[in-house]
Each structure stands twice: as structure tokens, then as C-alpha cells.
Amino acid sequence: MNGGQIPLPPAQQPPSQPPVQQPPQPGSPQPPVQAVMYSASGGAGMNEMDLLDEVKAFFRRVFASDFRTEQATRIERSRLARRGVVDPLAQNFVAWRSSILYVSAVCLLFYGIWNLATFTMTETEVRENVANKVEAALKSQFPNANEAQIKHAVDQQVDSTIRMFGSGNLGVVDNFKIISLISVLIGAAGVIASAVIWPMAKASRIMALVSWLIMFVTPLILSMFPVIGMMDMGHLKEQEAEELKKLLGFVFAVEMLSMTGPRVLALLPGVTRASLTLKTFLPESPTPGWAAAAVSPRWGLFLFVIIGTVNQLQGSYKLLIGFLFLFLAAMIPLITARRLIKPCTLQETTMAVTWPRRIAAVFNIVGVILIVWSVFEFPDVHAGKVIAFLVGTLGNVFLMSVVASDIVLAMMRMSFKQEQEFLESEYCKDLDAKLSGIGRDLSRKGAAAPAGQPAPVVIPAQLLRTADVLHAIEVVPATLVGSPQQAAQQPAPPGQGPGQARK
Questions:
Q1: Strand partners, 38
Q2: Is 46 exposed, middle or buried (0-12, 13-18, 19+ CB in 10 A)?
Q3: What does the DSSP assignment read for 154-184?
Q4: Does the pLDDT value for residue 356 go beyond 60?
Q5: Distance (Å, rounded) from C-alpha 45 to C-alpha 259?
Q6: Burial group, residue 67, by CB count within 10 angstroms (0-12, 13-18, 19+)
Q7: What does 11-62 look like in DSSP terms, one character per residue?
Q8: Which of 466, 475, 480 is nearest to 503 (CA)?
Q9: Would you put residue 444 in left (φ > 0), alpha (ψ -120 to 50) or beta?
Q10: Quick one: CA dihedral 380, 258, 193, 44, positive or negative?
Q11: Which pLDDT band holds residue 48 (cuts at 50, 70, 90)?
Q12: How far from chain centre, in Å, is Cα 354?
């Protein structure tokens, strides 16, 4: 008893003090030391392994898009849970959307910035093209002419051409080009916003759909306006005005093709890619397989039309073979449709989806390489425009795959609920009876008539009861009314005995 304090046992500590950690014994394993980093959302919690998993998952989703191996990371699940998305499958799907949206946003942003940086007024383009062609022609015809004379002649020809076109008419074309460019920039900004707010699934889905509609519908609406009719040709004679309208119409058609090309070309491949991805996401459902099989021949026929047109215009074998490879890649989902439309397990999707998709990817890569190679052999081809066109098409394919996935998944949910309600209703029994009767009658083989004898036709009893039909039977061969036994089985009309029923 020292100072009135009771000595504690050696094995105990005062309650107010934290427990003393025992030093590690020699030879015992040391606890791992992790380098803690700060996540983008704030706070500690993302270590080096989490960051590596994020990078691997990002590229795997973009290039594979296979939910057999696709899982949301720990950080993604944490962010989605805070937004109310707690189902593991839903988390995997939303995380996949985020990666595809980011790649689409980068591609579309590059495409929009390139078009903005290289945008030139139509009058400037006409001046440059006319000046280059006239200067080359004058130098070849008059090699001894000095530069001042050539420049004076070029300026006169350029001014004459602009007066013929009319600055106001060229300005009409510029207005359409500017509107299309603005739609691309707005759409790219919308896709970026949709990628940034990816944890808010509903808002991101709406933003992606609206962005795609703006970029896809705008050039289609512009192409419906009669541009030639909006131009003033009063300064020209009638024949000159007709020729100028054809020329300006061709120029505007080329501009519209360059504006709508990446969006139209990406439509059907994007839907096919989305359908195959959803087949790995919900392999039990046949709907994604039906969607891919239905879209595949349409995309193939579209490419077949392009093949025929290009073959007649250019006659380039590399271009022809390139489009043939794209055609074969487009037809693969149709060839493997029997496997795609069957419900299967997640492991069985390897043969149904994974290998056909890889074969199609090889065909697409070879086809694109051959097409680009042949395009660069054309005269006056700008490499930057070709690259921007390809990047814009790729961005639209990724965006369309996300939008189509959202739409097809919503249709699958609605169709499944309707099917459940239908199976429990009386309509199901009625439809089953109708289809059974139709299938039985259309699939079975009828009894063949004896050789040289027409098949008997049995007239219903309701018709046999009428006086007109009874009179007609007197002059109709017996084979048309069946056998005597069949006729005897028919009931007699009222007022006649059994022996007087029929002749």
C-alpha cells in the first residue's frame, strides 16, 4: 500500500490508457505497407493496386466489352453505392458505360476541335481551288510568262468565278456548315458531361441520348432543306443558272456527306456492338441476339451498295477488297444467329459471342486498313481530314453502343414484364390454341388422291340442306360430294324421310 493505491497485476493496464502493442516476434511476417493515395472524389482510400485496377478495367472495357470478365472496381462500387446503385450487375453495367463514354468524348472532342480549327468559308475555298487550277494551267500553256502576268490573270479569273457563284449563294452553304459544326461541338460537350456524371446513372443516360440526337438529327434536318432553291440566280442567264445550280448542288451534297458520314456509318455497327455486349451481360435473354441478327443484314446490304458504287467510280481493287472485308464482318452475327438467340450460361457465351466478335474485329481492321490505304492514293487527299473522319466515326460508334445498350436494356426489361403478364393471362391460351392449329395444319401432309382421279371434295352439311345445292348436286359428279357413305351420314332435311334425303 503506497500512497493509498492498490497495485495492479502485471498483466493489466489502467482503463484510461490504450492497449500496449506487443513487439513482433523475431521471424514473424511483417504487415504489408501500402502507399495511400487520395482519390479524385476526395479522401484517402485509393492505393496503388486500386489505381492499377482502374487502368486495366478501363482498357479492357473499351476493347473487349465482355461481362464474363468485366467487374466494377472497389472505388467504382463505393461511388455508385453513394448514388443509390447497389446491385452488383447494375454497378458493372454503369462502370462499363463510363469507360466507353470517356473514349467517345475524347474522340468527338478531337473531331469537333479539328473541324473548328480547319473551318474555312466556302468563298475562300473556291478562291483557293480556282487560283491553283488556273495558275497551273497558265504555267503549262505559257511557260515564258512572268509571275506578275500570271497573278493578274489568276485574280481576274477568280473574281469572275466568285461573281458567277454569287457571294450570297456561297454564304447559304456556309450557314449550313456552321450549324452542323455547332451541333458537333454541343454533342461533344454533352458526351463529356455524360461521362463526368457517370455515377448518376439516369442523368448520364439522358445526357448521352440527347447528345447523340443533336449530332445525328441536325445534319439530317439540314439535308431536307432545298438549298438550291434558297439561292439567287437572277444575275445569270437561264442556261448558266441551271449549270450553276447543278454545280452548287454537288458541292453541298459533298459537304452534307462529310457531315453526316461519321454519324450514319456508326449507327448500325454501334447497335450490333451494343447487342453483343448485352448478350454477355444477360446471356439468359434471347433479345440481344435477335437485335444483332436483325441489324447485321441491313448493315451488310448498305455496305454492298457502297461496294457496287465504289467499284464503278474508282475501280480500285484495294478499296473493293476492303469493303468486302467489312461486309463479311457485318454478316458474322447473322451467320451465328442460331447461337446468339439461344439462352445460355455466362461460360457458353465464349462460343456464341467472344470468338465471332474476335473474327469480326480482324475483318474490320483489315478492311479499314485497305480502305485508308486506297484513299491516300487519290489525288488531293488531305491526311488530316481522313484521320479526323475516322476518329469521328470511332467516337460515334462508341457513343451509339452506349445509347443502344441503354435502349435495348430498357426494352428487355419491359418485354420481360409484358411476357410474364401475358403467360398468366387468357390471351396466352388462345394464342397457343391458334398457333397449334395453324402449325398442325400447315406442317402435316394431306392424303394423296389416287392416280388419275381428282381429290374428293366434301361439301358441308349446312350447304347440303338448301334446295339450291340439292338441285346442283344432281348434275355434279359424285366425286365432288365425296363417297356414298359420307353423303349418307349427312342429316336429312326437314319433311323428308331417310330414303329421300339425297339422290
A1: 44
A2: buried
A3: HHHHHHHHHHHH-HHHHHHHHHHHHHHHHHH
A4: yes
A5: 45
A6: buried
A7: T---TTSPPPPPPPPTTPPPPPP--EEE-TTSSEEEEHHHHHHHHHHHHHHH
A8: 475
A9: beta
A10: negative
A11: low
A12: 18
Residue 494's identity, in one-letter code, is P
CA dist 329 and 366 (Å) reads 10
H or E segment and range at residue 436: helix 426-443
**pLDDT tens-place string over residues 10-29:** 444 444 444 444 444 444 44
Give, for 139, the enclosing helix (H) or strand (E). Answer: helix 122-141
Q: Which amino acid is at 500?
A: Q
Give bridge partners of residue 98 from the DSSP assignment: none
84 sits in the region (left: phi over 0; alpha: psi -120 to 50; else beta) called left
The band of 144, judged by pLDDT with boundaries at 50, 70 and 90, is confident
Local structure of 5: helix, strand or coil: strand
Residue 363: Cβ within 10 Å count: 19
Do residues 174 and 167 lie in contact, with contact meaning Cβ atoms separated by under 8 Å?
no
Model-level pTM?
Answer: 0.69
Task: Tell me which residue of 333, 338, 343 sits closest to 286, measured CA to CA.
Answer: 343
Secondary structure (3-state) at 402? helix
Cα 86 to Cα 79: distance, rounded to the nearest angstrom: 10
Cell 457563284 -> residue: 165
In sequence order, which residues have a C-beta less than 8 Å from that of residue 401 and are 6 or more positions away?
65, 100, 270, 271, 273, 274, 277
Written as nine digits, the cell of 314 is 474508282
Task: Indicate the SS3 state at residue 71.
Answer: coil
Name the residue among 71, 310, 255, 490 with its Cα closest to residue 502.
490
What would the mean pLDDT of 479-486 be, rounded to a whole number? 46
| CA gap 428, 273 in Å, rounded | 33
Q: How far apart are CA 165 and CA 250, in angstroms?
A: 13
End-to-end CA distance of the chain: 137
Q: How far apart are CA 320 and CA 311, in angstroms?
A: 6
Q: What is the DSSP string of 452-497?
A: TSPPP-PPPHHHHTSHHHHHHHTTS-GGGS--HHHHHTSPPPTT--
- Rg of the Cα atoms in the chain: 38
Does the pLDDT at position 170 exceed 80? no
pLDDT confidence bin for 480, thresholds 50/70/90: very low
Count of CB atoms situated within 10 Å of the CB of 80: 24
Amino acid (1-letter code) at residue 263: R
Cell of 320: 473493293
